[in-house]
Amino acid sequence: MTKVILFEINEITWDLVDPWIAQGKLPNFKALKEAGSFGRSHSPDLGDGLDPWVTWTTFYTGKPQKEHNVFFLEQPQDEIKSKRVWEIAAQAGKSLGVFGSLNSQPIPSARGFFIPGTFSVKPDTHPKSLLPIQELNVKYTRNYGQGKKDDTLFSYAKQALQLKMLGLSSKTIFRITRQLAEEKLDSGLYWKRACLQPLINFDFFTKLYREHRPDFATFHTNHVAHFMHRHWREMNPAAFDLKPTEEARRQFQDVILYGHQIADELLGRMRELVDDDTVLIVASSMGQQPFNPPRLKEGKKLVHVKSLPALLSLLGVGETATAEHMMADQFNVYFKDEEARGVTADLMKRAYLGTPDRKLFTVIPVGKSITSTISRYDGVKESTPCVFPHASGDRVIEYGDLIRTTDGELKSGCHHEKGVFMFFGKDIPANRDIGDVSNIDFLPTMLDVLGVAAPADLKGVNVLAAAGVNAYRRKPMFTAELPAYRPLDALISEDVRRFDERRRAPDSTSDAGGALGESPQPTSVDLPS
């Protein structure tokens, strides 16, 4: 049976990849496009739903946010309403090799290996012997992908010895050592640490994949998205009202390219794992674009809560709730019941910065949890009061004591609904542009390649079959829940009809600025030569 590897390069966009391919800077992307099929993915989840934990869950489940019910990163699993591809594959008896996919807990009972997303609240793995890998990931992801500044050459060396048995290569150990040595000479190279994590993880993935040869495998990296969010302004100042300094441009103008080149290196290594019975799928679930916040003349500063226990104490739930940092300015609060969550959510919505019209947080309560983002305003000082209006009296803390601001860094990339996908491997046509497809189409496509019957309620189509790849027309060979019988010819005709209708339909969401409430997609992107 055909195997599937899903390589998740979060949020990359053809708007950057294609020009760099043309300049000869991404040879493995170029080779894969020429040897396989490719196209543009579209997220049906727009506005507040255009976040990776939503778009990837749509990708995994074949259903939009309103059906799968994922609203935030590391949302409790009992609130996710749809089965994900690895759960369906495991039910059909397939072996798994999941590494880092978002919101991927709980770990299903299946042969193979399973390492959940790097923001996981519980550092669980299968088998348990892989726990050091996840503990390493959680440690550095909680520090937003760059490692801890107090890490030393000795601490890295100690970790390297512990992890070498799990697959960490001598080449990667050398790169870690070289990175730390280069920082001694130029501390401005600290940003490169974000690329150590995917390199280290891919060593582990490679060893595990070769040992297990799972039927369905994933590998997720967020490092490119991390760089685009932070450094698009330095790469392309013309797209921004607030220009970077010359020093910032000198230091960071090639950061995003470097992140893509690391992804390109990993893509070449991933291709080496693809044998004659495997299909490689490369996807991003969505893309990014320049971000010009219209109401912030000072730009959107990068911030996070200094101490979540201190914040819970200010909210009066220090003994009854737990909290976890997520991506930069976001954090989650977990409660034992919805009543306690409701009271705290109301208090957080009323908390303000300086004056009551400047709300301190945006708050989304879901089930027994709250996900929250720190609000930004111009003119905020370290001494600006943060006020929490309790019934018994206001609790006040200075902004600088509650919130840490990253000096000099501004958010400069935001999400866009158009992403990247590529297929490579057995029976995949070479140099074929499949066109535009929806994220809901990837689950039925992956299941058909695996030979697993898709759930009957999916609205997506098999994009390979619809594009004429006959080898991967629907083959319901294994299933845990058999759908009602439908003739094969009818299924194929329906795939083609849906696919053609979507391609002919006018693009009603092309104005990403309207959907996102930020800046529109630029018509061109100036790249460094």
3D architecture notes:
This protein is α/β, with parallel strands linked by helices. It folds into 2 domains: 1-111 and 214-292 and 414-529, Alkaline Phosphatase, subunit A, CATH 3.40.720; 301-410, no CATH class. The protein is built from 19 helices and 20 strands. The strands form 5 sheets. It has an 8-stranded mixed sheet with strand order 4-3-5-1-6-19-2-20, with helices on both faces. Strand 11 (352-353) and strand 12 form a beta hairpin. It is globular and about 70 Å long. The model is unreliable at 144-149, 476-493 and 507-529 (pLDDT under 50).
Short synopsis of the structure:
By secondary structure, this protein is α/β, with parallel strands linked by helices. Helices cover 36% and strands 21% of the residues. The strands form five sheets. Strands 4-3-5-1-6-19-2-20 form an eight-stranded mixed beta sheet, with helices on both faces. Strands 9-10-14-13 form a four-stranded antiparallel beta sheet, covered by helices on one side.
Count of runs of 4 or more consecutive helical residues = 19
- Per CATH, what is the topology of the largest domain? Alkaline Phosphatase, subunit A
Q: Which structural class fits the helix and strand makeup?
A: alpha/beta
Number of domains as seen in the coordinates: 2
Mean pLDDT equals: 87
Number of strands: 20
Shape: globular
Supply the CATH class of the largest domain.
Alpha Beta
Strand arrangement within the widest β-sheet reads 4-3-5-1-6-19-2-20
What would you report as the Rg, rounded to the nearest angstrom?
23 Å
Distance between the termini: 45 Å
